[in-house]
């Protein structure tokens, strides 16, 4: 780490999202014992200016569980974890980088440290409007960072994306999977785009999907 480059999470407690980033940074392509992961993640976080979280072991377990759900770690033997050399689409180094944020989301809802975002290019929306269609290509992804920064990193397009929605949640991976699954059932995934997170939908439609998911989850919790 460059000592002149600030640590993104200096002064903040260790959370599952931060721990997941450090696990990928420290152990990419390696198979390590869980106790080493716990020790090295905590010591690195503290050395860079972070603070300890309330419950260390549950934090690391949750981080590993989230990474496993994304296929980024596996558990080949009891107490050992193999960390993939790949990274999630939304993964970022724990060291801060000078990225120009995009415009803040038009609508922010929910609560929690996880984030699911929706953005689109205005050209897609205008084309749909011209054709009399209510749906257009939207990117639905998740991030452990500020979605405005994440979307601001998108390059290679002739226009800036419109960050339309920021859904805050306790479990970004679960909410993203649920939204994708519902849209997949409706055969809405775009197969001719770079990346796998583009769907023919609209911000209003996804708002309805998120409300339905929240209502279903609340009903299950109330049983």
Write up what this structure looks like.
This protein is an alpha+beta fold. It is 40% helix and 19% strand. The chain has helices spanning 16-27, 34-47, 56-69, 122-130, 147-152, 172-185, 203-222, and strands spanning 31-33, 73-77, 80-83, 107-110, 114-120, 136-143, 162-169, 198-201. The strands form 2 sheets. It has a 5-stranded mixed sheet with strand order 4-7-5-6-8. Helix 1 (16-27) crosses helix 2 and helix 1 (16-27) packs across helix 3. The radius of gyration is 19 Å and the shape is elongated. The termini are far apart. Mean pLDDT is 83; it is low at 96-101.
Keywords for this entry:
single chain, 223 residues, alpha+beta, 5-stranded mixed beta sheet, 3-stranded antiparallel beta sheet, 40% helix, 19% strand
Task: List strands and helices in order, with pairings.
Layout: H1 16-27, E1 31-33, H2 34-47, H3 56-69, E2 73-77, E3 80-83, E4 107-110, E5 114-120, H4 122-130, E6 136-143, H5 147-152, E7 162-169, H6 172-185, E8 198-201, H7 203-222
Parallel strand pairs: 4-7
Antiparallel strand pairs: 1-3, 2-3, 5-6, 5-7, 6-8
Helix pairs in contact: 1-2, 1-3, 6-7
Q: What is the makeup of the main sheet? A: 5 strands, mixed
Low-confidence parts? 96-101
Secondary structural class:
alpha+beta
Strand content: 15-25%
Count every beta strand, where a strand is a DSSP E run of 2 or more residues: 8
Q: In which order are the strands of the major sheet placed? A: 4-7-5-6-8
């Amino acid at each position: 780490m460059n000592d002149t480059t600030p640590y993104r999470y200096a002064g903040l407690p260790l959370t599952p999202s931060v721990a997941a980033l450090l696990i990928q940074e420290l152990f990419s392509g390696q198979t390590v014992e869980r106790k080493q992961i716990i020790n090295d993640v905590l010591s690195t976080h503290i050395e860079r200016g972070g603070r300890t979280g309330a419950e260390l072991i549950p934090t690391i377990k949750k981080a590993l569980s989230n990474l496993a759900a994304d296929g980024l770690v596996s558990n080949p033997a009891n107490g050992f974890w193999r960390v993939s050399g790949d990274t999630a689409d939304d993964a970022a180094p724990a060291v801060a980088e000078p990225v120009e944020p995009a415009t803040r989301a038009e609508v922010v809802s929910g609560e929690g440290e996880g984030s699911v975002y929706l953005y689109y290019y205005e050209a897609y929306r205008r084309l749909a409007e011209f054709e009399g269609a209510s749906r257009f290509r939207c990117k639905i992804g998740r991030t452990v960072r500020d979605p405005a920064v994440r979307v601001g990193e998108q390059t290679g397009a002739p226009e800036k994306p419109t960050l339309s929605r920021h859904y805050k949640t306790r479990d970004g991976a679960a909410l993203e999977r649920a939204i994708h699954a519902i849209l997949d059932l409706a055969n809405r995934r775009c197969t001719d785009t770079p990346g796998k997170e583009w769907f023919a939908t609209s911000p209003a439609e996804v708002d309805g999907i998120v409300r339905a998911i929240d209502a279903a989850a609340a009903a299950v919790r109330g049983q």
